[in-house]
Amino acid sequence: MDPRCDVQRGGSTGGSSGDSSAASRRRKVPPRPADCKLQVIIIGSRGVGKTSLMERFTDDTFCEACKSTVGVDFKIKTVELRGLKIRLQIWDTAGQERFNSITSAYYRGAKGIVLVYDITKQETFDDLPKWMKMIDKYASEDAELLLVGNKLDCEADRVITRQQAERFAARVSGLRFCEASAKDNFNVDEIFLKLVDDILSKMPLEVPRRELSNSILSLQPEPDVPPELPPPRMRCC
Ligand SMILES: Nc1nc2c(ncn2[C@@H]2O[C@H](COP(=O)(O)OP(=O)(O)OP(=O)(O)O)[C@@H](O)[C@H]2O)c(=O)[nH]1
């Protein structure tokens, strides 16, 4: 069994009474509310690894035999960038065409779109113009776009060269490109954080513009707090 399928969670409850009272004191500190909420959507053909990328980013897990997504699913992760605490909602869509009428409804609210293909499957790359049409039709014009060639760990089975994908991306205004591996956890945080950073850079925020590498303060799992948070302090979403 792949040990990476195990979810590692801290917080053992087996400590002494002194430890548990210290833990309960720690729990009473309310988490700082999010400044901003952002939605990002992941699209692409069936089996390219959309769910795997989302789960690697949000839970640091990888499943060798995931079930195909039905309709849409989502996960939330709080990240800190540019001095802001951002509640990132990631929508994972089904790649099967029969769900397009459901998934297309989620494009409009997305500030960022991750379009994924599988570097080992020609048809998933050939499908990209079809996904671009979906973006043109349903997404907001100012949504940030990122093309991701996933399964980089399968280099021996690669059929789409990096240059081919770069050429495709160069033809679409504003489409950035990178390769990643959900399995090996390569470039996964970078995908989402770069996208969020690009989104923030376009927003009229009164925060200093800093380089991405200097502005990642921390990555945190979503805290166990009720979803209703005080209104954001910044007018960013
Ligand atoms: N080798 C390798 N396999 C991967 C990677 N990412 C995903 N997979 C595998 O590819 C298969 C499909 O992954 P999913 O994440 O379910 O793909 P999806 O795009 O969400 O699929 P749909 O929900 O059907 O659209 C699974 O067997 C994953 O284990 C990767 O980076 N490398």
TrEMBL record:
Q: What is its EC number?
A: 3.6.5.2
Q: Could you tell me which species this protein originates from?
A: Electrophorus voltai
The record describes its membrane topology as:
Lipid-anchor
Keyword Phosphoprotein on entry: yes
Quote the protein name from its UniProt record: Ras-related protein Rab-12
Localization, per the record, is: Cytoplasmic vesicle, Autophagosome; Golgi apparatus membrane; Lysosome membrane; Recycling endosome membrane
What GO biological process terms are annotated to this protein in UniProt? autophagy; protein transport
Q: Which Gene3D superfamilies match?
A: P-loop containing nucleotide triphosphate hydrolases
Cofactor dependency: Mg(2+)
